[in-house]
Amino acid sequence: MSDLDLVEVAEGFECYTPATGNPVLTEAKLIYAEIFGRNTYLSGLTPIDPKGLVVDAGANIGLFTLFIKHHYPEASVLAVEPIPHNVEALRANLRHHNVSGVTVHPTGLSDAPGTTEFYFFPSMPGNSTAHLAEKLKDKQTVAKYANPAIAEQLYRNEAVQVPTTPLSDLLPPNVEIDLIKMDIEGSEEAALRGIAEEDWPRIKQLAIEVHETRSTLDSVLETLTTRGFKARAQTPEEAPKGIDNRIVYATRP
């Protein structure tokens, strides 16, 4: 079992995190502000069914899952997270906040079952990824806001082997999916390929953070529009200059 810290990220709100040694910030506070403060993932979508099914892909330590269960206590959530340290914190946060109705899948998403090498960032667990080279491009940007030694600390990483699963293999049969929220640090295209054609019609809407958009954004938008969605992309609020991310919102017209 790894060491988890219980941190206060807002007045009256605590959560567990595996983050260690970050000399700049408490990552969980940034994620809380993104989800609870700015409502990043739901702001571009239509209201979800209060008793519906939500997929939290890239659940990290569970803050979006907690957000959904706070606003929609009767909703069901599939929380998908590949990094073992993050899964441990996710489960601890569900217990800490006495949340039920959540199924945790400790796996990455891809277009085929297997095993993949991921990279865990101890100082920034939310940046953990299967695409190390792309993620390390951001280190140069961060170095402009801090000194190189701090950038080195933030982007220190360790490899971990994790299972991967097509998303369709995790979905319950014959149930509409009100929302797929996806923030999986560069694996978006493979994860979308892991949705079987027969499952697309039962997906109502998606919110996807797309990384390295110069090479992937057009592909993600085409995948969604060809399945009948109206999709648009926007830059996340307060995104550091130089970080190449977009949020794609996809709804049924």
UniProtKB/TrEMBL annotation:
<dbReference type="GO" id="GO:0008168">
    <property type="term" value="F:methyltransferase activity"/>
</dbReference>
<keyword id="KW-0489">Methyltransferase</keyword>
<dbReference type="InterPro" id="IPR006342">
    <property type="entry name" value="FkbM_mtfrase"/>
</dbReference>
<protein>
    <submittedName>
        <fullName>Methyltransferase, FkbM family</fullName>
    </submittedName>
</protein>
<dbReference type="Pfam" id="PF05050">
    <property type="entry name" value="Methyltransf_21"/>
</dbReference>
<dbReference type="GO" id="GO:0032259">
    <property type="term" value="P:methylation"/>
</dbReference>
<dbReference type="InterPro" id="IPR029063">
    <property type="entry name" value="SAM-dependent_MTases_sf"/>
</dbReference>
<keyword id="KW-0808">Transferase</keyword>
<dbReference type="InterPro" id="IPR052514">
    <property type="entry name" value="SAM-dependent_MTase"/>
</dbReference>
<feature type="domain" description="Methyltransferase FkbM">
    <location>
        <begin position="56"/>
        <end position="230"/>
    </location>
</feature>
